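Training component of the fellowship. As part of building independent skills, the fellow (R.M.) carried out the full modelling exercise for a liganded target. The chosen ligand was pyridoxal-5'-phosphate. The inputs are recorded below so that the supervisory panel can assess the work.
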Amino acid sequence: MSEIQNIDQNYVANTYARFPVELVSGNGSLLYGSDGKQYIDMGSGIAVNTFGIADPIWQKAVTDQLGKLQHTSNLYYTEPCARLAEMLCNKTGMKKVFFSNSGAEANECAIKVARKYAAETKGEQYSAIITLENSFHGRTLTTLAATGQEHFHKLFQPLTPGFYHAPANDLDAIKALADKLPTAAIMIECVQGEGGVNALDADYVKALAAYAKEKEILLLVDEVQTGNGRTGELYAYMHYGITPDVVSTAKGLGGGLPLGATLLSEKVQHVLRFGDHGSTFGGNPVCCAGAISVLKRLDNAFLAEVKEKSDYIFRALQGAKGVRSVSGMGLMIGV
Ligand SMILES: *Cc1c(COP(=O)(O)O)cnc(C)c1O
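Fellow's submitted model of the complex:
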């Protein structure tokens, strides 16, 4: 084990099973290790490095902003934050954005919005949030409660109460829960990442959205991993022709810097009022400048290219020797 690997093992909390590789630099889809080897990056830092490593356009956007102002606090206006919010709304039809620093925080905000909206419109007891089995929504105590995987819950009890899980692609299971629980919201990932890179059935998602609307239950879509072009649409829900009430995203949005965003539809745009929520770093100008440069490039031509590459990879892998199954959507592919 190298010196750096040794120091890391000794001093960094041992929550990750790291590969025995120390990465030093990179370029596009290539990474270089301290072992002198070149690696092909198939993971993009877990769906984060949207345009690869050290992308010159993204790097310029970030360093230009870094040369001007790195942080202000949310007591002041900055251009990157305002422009990014406007851009996200223009591209999705959502009306407002709350910025944070991670996927878990983006989901926390979505959950707070759902609970407050339900409390104000239906009554405070309408706090239940239904999510899917094998989902993943983050590591905070509330987003862990939302995560439908028991093994993450053990030894961290009590988690935030009020979360219930239904099997994916089973609308009756959701209806059975929602009929007996005072429900604020249903939260889904259109393609479950941790759950095995499985896209939800189109009929199910459409029927679920219609059911939620009919019952005045908010539909929250977690686009932390599926968002920002990864699946061939800007956000994966766009493949399904549904309109979520709240969309959370992070990972690829910042292109490599920490940034979370919770997008609020017309219905819930005014739920968060002064003092209801906040973040010291949320909407940081450097992170937002990077995100603007990412979003600008995720145009229709680029998304069409993602779909084309996806079709090619799916075709090439299906039935290939040693491949049992290929799943997912766009360039979010499980093999
Ligand atoms: C990664 C992920 C999260 C958590 O994001 P963090 O930035 O690690 O907090 C939440 N939801 C989904 C679907 C994810 O893939």
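The panel noted the following from the submitted structure. The CA atoms of residues 21 and 33 lie 7 Å apart. The longest strand covers residues 183-188.
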